[in-house]
Amino acid sequence: MDTHIVERLAEFINNGELNAEMIHVESEHSAISAAIGSEATGVRTFTATASQGLALMHEILFIVAGMRLPVVMAVANRALSAPINIWNDHQDSISERDTGWIQLYIESAQEALDTIIQAYKIAENHEVLLPVMVCLDGFTLSHVFEPVDIPNEKDVNKFLPKYNPLFKLDPKKPVTMGPIGFPDTYMEFRQETHEAIIRAKEIIKKTNTEFKKSFNRGYGDGVLETYKIEDAEYAVVAMGTICGTARVVVDEMRKEGKKVGLIKIKCFRPFPKEEITNCCKNIKNIAVIDRNISLGNEGALFTEFKSAFYNQENKPIINGFVAGLGGRDVTKEHIKKAFERTGKTNQTEWLS
Amino acid sequence: MDDKIAGITTEEHFASGHRACAGCGAALMARLALKAAGKNTIVVNATGCLEVFSTPYPETAWKIPWIHGAFENAAAIASGVDRALKSLGKRKDVNVLAFGGDGGTFDIGFQALSGAAERGDNFCYICYDNGAYMNTGIQRSGATPKYASTTTSPAGSKIHGKTEFKKPMPFIMAAHGAYVATANIAFPLDFIEKVKKGLAFNGPAYIQVFSTCPTGWKLGGGFTIQIARLAVESNITPLYEIEKGVVKISKKPSKVIPVDEYLKSQGRFKHLNESEIKEIQENVDENWQKLLDLEKNKSKMC
Questions:
Q1: pLDDT digit string (tens) for A69-95?
Q2: Are B160 and B147 in contact, with CB atoms under 8 Å apart?
């Protein structure tokens, strides 16, 4: 579990500020399993984890999505062992990209808070009914302090009304949840889940717009956010807190007259292919910075980002960079180097 | 008032027409347990034979709300159901029953079960014990009796089946402070009584039901009840309860039969030699004596 998140929630509950049951599970595997039980019984459910804990949940993550249970989970992104390392990178959640969970990556503490609220609205939408992973950089976001504006309860309740599950375990209306799917039905379940997560993209965007209306804050179009790319020739692409540093680098390089910009991918699942190609029309060189590595190939974001352009006529030059693994700082110099190296290399480069 | 036969309700919450093998003890176990629990019950089922044969989508044998997640997490899901009901203010109106086979309980699901019991979560966990991973093809589990031949502990010329005795799960669960009972499908009234007691207990309850598997035991489907009865009469699987750590034997056979009577009709034991049967007999006698001593001394196990 991510300790700080759970510790604060325990304080809220024990001080009577939050009306909730807290299940003190013995493992992450049981945490996500208990979440299945409570969500299926018709109760809004939250859990948090990181790193090895998320890896331990792996088996059950598929089941939550396959059973269409709108659980929301914060993942304080951290590296995976070995060697054991407790610091930040995205390997844990990237390794869960095929589980059927919506994945939203976060840049700031404010965005984390706002996105958790949005996540329930997205997950519980009857057109979606899928779990959401809110991925925030471990330590960089989970263990530092930043002032945040906490919206008042009344406004949040208005934005996110009472949970209205489509199905639940209720003796008054019995349902069977989690049956066996033989080869004649299994594939349709998978296809429907896939179609739901594809459908979720528009709901994520809509939810971001509604949030903006209610709270005067938004994050790009909800699936990605751009910074100074209108006339940019070079762009850096990243997820999470690297984007905060990249904004500063863009400003500095702009002062030097360089036409650079930032594309922040917020939503990794579903992957916003159309939004990506639409915002890259005039960009010549793109540097994708991954805080993960698909060992034996390249960074996962790099692979997926490139795939968006496969059927495009005018493709930008796209290069991949791996940075910030196991808590290594990603500095302004690293990002500058990525800008400089685009178009000059044909292999994934390590910014270390 | 509903109709009753020999004190058992005729109301069914587990429908016939499912796909269990002929003579399946687990199907009978589920049917009886639901008769005890009634319709205001939510069932959590671990992966295993029971889950597979009762829910081939889009069919279901369950007339009450039922959920299955994975093999090793039935107890954790049940914790979630229990606490969600509490949070909805409906805990008193609904029973929570969890089913797992012996593989899903003794072995792979043990951690989740121990965690739920330690937390004092309020549900009744029923382990239907047929002494192997029957669903996946009769592999050895921690509940497999010594010398039983399974697909992963075959009776070979060098090694004669499983080499260890059964894990003492009821005692382990009693040490958690749970209400514990052993039951047997051949004794339905006793079983139903214990399920009711387990559900009424304010905290974790663990019931281990001896449940014949004709397929895995290499036995005709018509012998399900007979063989289960012999297991009690030979003291191989005594019926008892452990309440607040104190053992109470539910049934003492008027005439104890030798274990051989139980062993000889099952294909899984047909390779046994005399010394092995003797060793099993000694172990059964020792365990029975231990149980008698525990009952007599009223010594608390937790």
A1: 999 999 999 999 999 999 999 999 999
A2: yes
Q: Set out the domains of chain A in order of their start, with CATH numbers.
A: 3-215 (3.40.50.970), 224-351 (3.40.50.920)
Pair of tokens at residue B285: 């006698």
How are strands ordered across the β-sheet holding A317-323?
A: A224-227, A260-265, A234-238, A285-290, A317-323, A349-351
- Nearest by Cα to B47 from B97, B124, B106, B104: B104
Listed by start position, the domains of chain B span 4-297
Contact A196, A129 (CB under 8 A): yes
Q: How many CA atoms lie within 13 A of B280 on its CB side?
A: 27
Q: What is the ipTM of this complex?
A: 0.96
Render B212-268 in DSSP notation, one character per residue: --HHHHT--GGGHHHHHHHHHHTTSS-EEEEETTEEEEEE--SSPPPHHHHHTT-GG
**Antiparallel, parallel or unpaired: β A102-106 and A132-137:** parallel
Mark which residues 217-246 of A lie under 8 Å from B by CB.
Answer: none
Across the interface, whether the CB atoms of A181 and B62 are under 8 A apart is answered: no
Helix, strand, coil percent content, chain A, rounded in steps of 5: 40, 15, 45
pLDDT in tens, A319-345: 999 999 999 999 999 999 999 999 999
User: Measured between CB atoms, which of A24, A175, A178 is closest to B68?
Assistant: A178
Q: Which residue of A has its CA nearest to B65?
A: A174
Q: What is the DSSP string of B79-93?
A: HHHHHHHHHHT-TTT
Fold of B4-297: Rossmann fold (3.40.50)
- Torsion angles phi and psi, residue B250, rounded to 5: -80, -30
pLDDT tens digit sequence for A213-234: 999 999 999 999 999 999 999 9
CA–CA dist B114, B110 (Å, integer):
6
In this complex, the residue of B63, B68, B115 whose CB is nearest that of residue A25 is B115
Cα B209 from Cα B102, distance rounded (Å): 10
Contact (CB, 8 A) for B106 and B208: no
Residues within 8 A of B (CB atoms), A 38-57 only: 38-43, 45
Q: Which two tokens stand for residue A42?
A: 């018709």
CB under 8 Å, gap of 24 or more: what pairs does B2-9 form? Answer: B6/B189, B7/B189, B8/B32, B8/B35, B8/B188, B8/B189, B8/B192, B9/B35
Q: What is the pLDDT of residue B239?
A: 98
Greatest Cα pair distance, chain B, in angstroms, is 60
**Of A41, A47, A43, A35, whose CA–CA distance to A19 is shortest?**
A43
Please, are residues B84 and A37 in contact by the beta-carbon 8 Å criterion?
Answer: yes
Give chain A's mean pLDDT.
97
pTM of the model: 0.97
> Does A3 score more than 80 pLDDT?
no
